[in-house]
Write a structure and sequence with these properties.
With about 110 residues, this protein is an alpha+beta fold. About 35% of the residues lie in helices and about 25% in strands.
């Protein structure tokens, strides 16, 4: 994902004032990895398709945020998680989502 973000950063038409925040969503917390300008779907469809296919394949999430800067966009996502998931117990057992093509760790038959 990092290589893809570095390869596409700044090389496409973007949506003005919109940022795509790339994060790992673990249900009760999120880890923000990167923030990039949101690709304009009508002017850079190949970038949008590549980005969202990579997000799906790596089981990462993305959030589109209208903000003045990448830092403000990342802070908005962190604040959202803090406000909506603060009551979740981080030690609680959760059910992982099995994405096609992703090998989850665990015992093998």
């Amino acid at each position: 994902m990092t290589e893809l973000v570095q390869a596409i950063r700044g090389k496409y038409e973007r949506v003005a004032g919109s940022w795509t925040v790339i994060a790992a969503d673990h249900g009760w917390r999120a880890k923000v990895f990167d923030v990039i300008p949101t690709p304009a779907p009508n002017k850079a469809p190949h970038v949008a398709d590549t980005l969202f296919s990579a997000l799906y394949a790596t089981a990462l999430s993305s959030y589109e945020v209208t903000a003045k800067s990448p830092g403000d966009a990342a802070a908005a996502v962190r604040a959202h998680f803090a406000a909506t998931r603060a009551d979740h117990d981080p030690d609680a057992t959760g059910q992982p989502v099995n994405f096609p093509g992703i090998q989850l760790p665990g015992p093998h038959p």
